[in-house]
């Protein structure tokens, strides 16, 4: 996981183009899957449920390039999902199945980001990560799954550039 976060930040700083994603999911993620996640977020956070305009969801493969927050980034092998606020879309990384709780929790994590960025301003994109990971961990725990997140790594990667001292 820490490599995925680091790769995302490095890719933003050093974009490299190969071939483009997104490819639409072979089947859409049904509302019967996303709606309970959005409701769960509303029940466990200060963010309201927003079912009116669901984000576009795309499935990408490792090694593909996605346009993310106005930059081109390579999908790293450890990246499971990403939310692009500028274009209101979620990228899931293949393989992905709504029947796998870890995969589903990646979608939940990105839906949390969508709710976060629609509700308030953040000093930087990374600042929203700890809350999203805490909610993801709680959701997984309710299903008997240990998230096994590296909280120190999450802390380091969630710091805004202005938080770094010489």
Give the arrangement of secondary structure elements.
Blueprint: H1 2-13, E1 23-24, H2 31-44, E2 56-60, E3 65-68, E4 71-74, E5 81-84, E6 89-93, H3 101-119, H4 129-142, H5 151-158
Parallel strand pairs: 2-6
Antiparallel strand pairs: 1-2, 3-4, 5-6
Keywords: Signal
Signal peptide: 1-19
Organism: Thioclava pacifica DSM 10166
Listing every helix as H and every strand as E from the N terminus to the C terminus, the arrangement reads HEHEEEEEHHH
Count of helix runs: 5
Largest sheet properties? 4 strands, mixed
Count of discrete structural domains: 1
Helix content percent band: 40-55%
Give a description of the structure.
This protein is of the alpha+beta class and 166 residues long. The chain has one domain (2-163). It contains 5 helices and 6 strands. The protein has a 4-stranded mixed sheet, covered by helices on one side. A two-stranded antiparallel ribbon has the order 3-4. The longest helix is centred in the middle third of the chain and has 19 residues, at 101-119. It is globular, with a radius of gyration of 15 Å. The two termini are 26 Å apart. Residues 1-19 have low confidence and may be disordered. Keywords: Signal.
């Amino acid at each position: 996981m820490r490599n995925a976060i680091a790769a995302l930040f490095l890719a933003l700083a050093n974009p490299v183009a190969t071939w483009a994603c997104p490819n639409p999911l072979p089947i859409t993620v049904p509302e019967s899957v996303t709606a309970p996640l959005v409701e769960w977020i509303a029940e466990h956070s200060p963010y309201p449920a927003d079912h009116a305009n669901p984000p576009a969801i795309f499935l990408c493969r490792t090694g593909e390039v996605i346009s993310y927050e106005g930059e081109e980034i390579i999908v790293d092998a450890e990246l499971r999902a990403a939310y692009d606020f500028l274009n209101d879309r979620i990228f899931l990384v293949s393989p992905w199945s709504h029947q796998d709780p870890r995969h589903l929790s990646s979608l939940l994590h990105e839906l949390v980001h969508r709710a976060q960025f629609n509700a308030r301003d953040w000093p930087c994109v990374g600042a929203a990560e700890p809350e999203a990971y805490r909610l993801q961990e709680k959701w997984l725990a309710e299903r008997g799954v240990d998230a096994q997140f590296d909280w120190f790594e999450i802390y380091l990667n969630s710091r805004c550039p202005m938080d770094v001292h010489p």
